[in-house]
Amino acid sequence: MRAARLIKMVLLLQNRRTMTAAELAAELEVSERTVSRDVLALSEAGIPVYADRGRGGGYRLVGGYRTRLTGLDRSEAEALFLSGVPAALRAMGRADAALAARLKLSAALLPELRDAPESAAGRFHLDAPGWWQPPETPPLLPAVAEAVWEDLPLTAHYRRRDGTRVARELEPYGLILKAGAWYLAARPRGGAGHRVYRVARFAEVTVGEVPFAREEFDLAGFWAERAAEFARALLREEVELWLTEAGRGMLRHVTDRAAAEEALRGAGPRDARGRRRVTLRVESLDVAYSQLLALGPEAEITAPAALRERFAAAARRMAAHYG
């Protein structure tokens, strides 16, 4: 208990430079007298803790003293925060830095805690890609990742959906791994706003040598906004249908969850059979057919007419099967 408290005190002083006895006591949840005794114990153990007297005084570490944990270099420290996704680190070419960081961290732990990495790895594993969808590891990902880590500009040739290639001068801000696919958030050089590029579509990349001036950027917030916009943009068609109570419960399991919840919030009043009419946004009528067919008798399509006829034809064929 006391050993852990002493380590925490050293780390607090290392991070905050100077702290009063009252501040340390509050952080460590002990009395100021205990703080004084702990400081004495650290000094006797060779940790150079110095007490500044008078107004504005407090305790500090002398001579820029650092614990062994801070032996991590920048690449190791950055990799350490991604150590829970080893496959992503390997894909970005950061596996060696992550291993060095873990070894240094293990060396800084108390002996009874040095099995913590193996213990955690044996209890938690992250498998990001979806089922039946092998993850992609674009061959140019390490070069793109280097540019992201070092704030270096990219000259890239990018393949559009139609197969044409375009040249782009980019300032790469961040990488996103979504369901096994890698995306780059980057700003066109000299342009405004950030855009998303699928890394697998880069045909060529050249990493520049002079870093660009990186501005403050919320990668997680940017991606959440763009992902929501992308999902909404996919839903280009509308289907009107009656749903039974069972159908309303099933809807979110057979189609886009956000679209289903939006449709259910706007459901009309119950008819004489207990059904409610909803308007559902879908990617296409073909997708709607394949998804909503799973609702069976719990749904009745009313519009568009072409989709209703497809369901009617499917119902006739099914009836023929069962006599």
From TrEMBL:
Domain HTH deoR-type: 2-67
Record flagged with keyword Nucleotide-binding: no
Pfam families: HTH_11, WCX, WYL
GO terms assigned for molecular function: DNA-binding transcription factor activity
SUPFAM superfamilies: Winged helix' DNA-binding domain (SSF46785)
InterPro entries referenced in this protein's UniProt entry, alphabetically: CBASS_pafABC_assoc_protein, DeoR_HTH, HTH_11, PafC-like, WCX_dom, WH-like_DNA-bd_sf, WH_DNA-bd_sf, WYL_dom
Classification via PROSITE patterns: HTH_DEOR_2, WYL
Keywords: Transcription, Transcription regulation
PANTHER family: PROTEIN PAFC, PTHR34580
Protein name: WYL domain-containing protein
Organism: Streptomyces hoynatensis
Taxonomic lineage of the native organism: Bacteria, Bacillati, Actinomycetota, Actinomycetes, Kitasatosporales
